[in-house]
Design a protein that fits this description.
Length: 329
């Protein structure tokens, strides 16, 4: 086994954290031969519950887990980390406007960005899970002085997995047969799940599904509103699938992801495909296994795709304007 990888998880006592931590401890990000240490962050009132989570992790006796630390201090939680999964965020309350939510979460992610810059390891990768994750990521990135912007990503892996499942169910295939689904834009109900370059058992998805009206209508709406549907069904948010997606997203950064089944990652836009520059938008990406990503280039976007993508890109531009005063550099 190689040296220990240090992983920070914020909001670690929450529902997503409770599902996510065993996945990391059992090799879900770095594989079955890599020891990991967990450095857990929570707000002060929840530290008691976090200690209980630590007890359970110890009682699991994971062979790869070397230590678990708990803290309410971001600098302590992020010290020497190789990966930071920023899961904790303030949820939207009754009557709260999106601008208010962005401002409230901005205060959290300003501090976390600053702490990452001060304390994290020299090659750290940051994955933002807490919603609104794209703009939370933008805020943290801008406040992490000295940390390269490409170290920061946000999560639309859950949306990609949801889209794969819908295409698989519609075509009567297993979701592992679905490749190259793309999520464009924001992790919100404006996101665009794009099937045009996807395949199912090697056959173009549109041909395998053979229902253009469903693809352009119910498929998109189902993926966009899946989180709401799960809340309506179980009375709670989708913590288990969100945790799996966070683990899969992080794993995709630290393993090789090729063009034959790319990963949808929210990354800083360089203007590819007409996306406004400087926002954190979801793109199809490949990865090199060392935490580095690259936007897949040369994909054709038809008029339908351009129209759908433009809606979600403009929402991200609007969100950036709402938090402009929180962007330090």
């Amino acid at each position: 086994m190689s040296n220990v990888k240090r992983v920070a998880v914020t909001g670690a006592a929450g529902q997503i954290g409770y599902s996510l931590l065993p996945m990391i401890a059992s090799g879900g990000i770095f594989g079955p031969n890599q020891k990991v240490a967990l450095q857990l962050l929570e707000v002060t009132p929840v530290l008691g519950a976090l200690e209980g989570v630590k007890m359970e992790l110890e009682d699991c006796a994971f062979p790869l887990l070397t230590e678990v630390t708990c803290s309410d201090d971001p600098k302590a939680a992020f010290k020497d980390t190789d990966a930071c999964l920023l899961v904790g965020s303030k949820p939207r309350g009754p009557g709260m406007e999106r601008k208010d939510l962005l401002q409230d979460n901005g205060k959290i992610f300003i501090g976390q960005g600053q702490a990452i810059a001060e304390a994290a390891g020299p090659d750290v990768r940051v994955i933002v899970v807490g919603n609104p994750c794209n703009t939370n990521c933008l805020i943290a990135m801008h406040n992490a002085s000295g940390v390269p912007q490409d170290r920061f990503t946000a999560m639309t892996r859950l949306d990609q997995s949801r889209a794969k499942a819908q295409l698989a169910n519609k075509s009567g295939k297993h979701w592992s047969a679905v490749k190259n689904v793309t999520i464009w834009g924001n992790h919100s109900n404006t996101q665009y799940p794009d099937w045009h370059h996807a395949t199912i058992d090697g056959v173009p998805a549109a041909q395998a599904v053979n229902d253009d009206a469903w693809l352009a209508g119910d498929f998109i709406a189902t993926v966009q509103e899946r989180g709401k549907a799960i809340i309506n069904a179980r009375g709670k948010s989708s913590a288990m699938s969100a945790a799996q997606a966070a683990c899969d997203h992080a794993k995709s950064l630290f393993t090789v992801t090729k063009k034959d089944d790319w990963a949808s990652l929210c990354v800083i836009s360089d203007g590819s495909y007409g996306t406004p520059e400087g926002i954190i938008s979801s793109f199809p990406c490949t990865t090199d296994g060392s935490g580095n990503w690259q936007i897949v280039q040369g994909l054709e976007m038809n008029d339908f795709s351009k129209q759908k993508a433009e809606i979600t890109w403009q929402e991200l531009v609007s969100e950036r304007e709402m938090v402009q005063g929180l962007l330090a550099n």
